[in-house]
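Quick illustration for those who missed Monday's session on complexes.
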Amino acid sequence: MNTTNRADTPPDSLISRFEVTFGAAPDGVWAAPGRVNLIGEHTDYNQGFVLPFAIEKRARTAVRLRDDSTVRLLSTIGDQGLVEADAAALAPGAVTGWAKYPLGVVWALQQHGIKVPGFDLLLDSDVPLGAGLSSSHAIECALITALNELTGAGLSAEEMVMLTQRAENAFVGAPTGIMDQSASLRGASGHAVFLDCRDQAVQLVPFEAQEAGLVLLVIDTKVSHSHADGGYSSRRASCELGAQILGVSALRDVAVTDLQNARGLLDPTTFRRVHHIVTENDRVLQTVDTLRAHGAAHIGDLLDASHASMRDDFEISCPELNLAVDKARTNGAIGARMTGGGFGGSAIALTPVQDEQQVRDAVILAFAAAGFTRPEIFSVTPSAGAARTS
Ligand code: ADP
Ligand code: MG
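Prediction with magnesium ion bound:
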């Protein structure tokens, strides 16, 4: 998978590039961030809790409405060139390439009864593609924020979350939940987004790694395992089976204290899947409490426990992620875990500032020694959600 990263085009050059490409100034520029999930993995489709945050890396879209129904799309990366489509003739499954993300948003808005005219769009994003940081939702959230304003649709953040989910599920064909776009649309600087995936309730929880002398490192393993899709759907099926046998509508309704009893009712594999979800949900709640009471320096054990649970119970880790986590931990990180759907993507390592270089060096050295592709390592801080920038 292409993970080429492009330095941010300065705002004025995005605008002038738009003018050169489309012959007129954009109506404005709207930006939406990628996200990192601090904790709470695969809990979203079990109607549980997640704790992602918006990062500083973001997709920026310069947009100008047109008088006809033509949509013209250009990205500053990739070699697809200008993509043209008719906003009045969109059909799920018919679009290939990156255009399916913005066009999925247009289609979802139309399904919701909102009239969307044609428009010109120039995209520039520094969210790494396919690294588990949700570059796709960054595009969708930037555009839906733009179109919400430009069409005067007056959608709430909750509605935009549901519509971008519809775009991904029904138009793009990716069975994703509501976590990524909730973080991208509802994130705030210095905070993680504590999201209840049952009712979309959000609480912003202070997450100030810097104040605690820490840095949150993202280690992009550059791995995208071919069985990721199959693994995702089989985990979902196990969770549904577990919920059905335990007589609950979703695993969110199973408490840690119910697990003893559940062991006798489920086959060993389903039990391990259920065990992950139930304990992970509990770890999200503990992380929220700990951040509020004691701060970021005290959540390391919860991150470690989350990784062990995904590695051993949910079995969605891979050698590269395990190596990244192990090397980060043994070189100073106070907690580390894989983040995202699994089978590749990124790990996070909460690291004392004075150990940052050592962790970076140790991970890169270990990957080289193991014959793995060199990982990309960068720090992230909780940043603001989607907004108009010019
Ligand atoms: P993730 O959302 O985790 O990064 P996805 O597979 O859901 O991974 O989305 C990645 C896809 O999003 C890419 O294959 C590409 O089609 C599209 N994409 C993301 N950023 C850009 C960009 N800057 N330009 C063009 N396409 C992009
Ligand atoms: Mg995505």
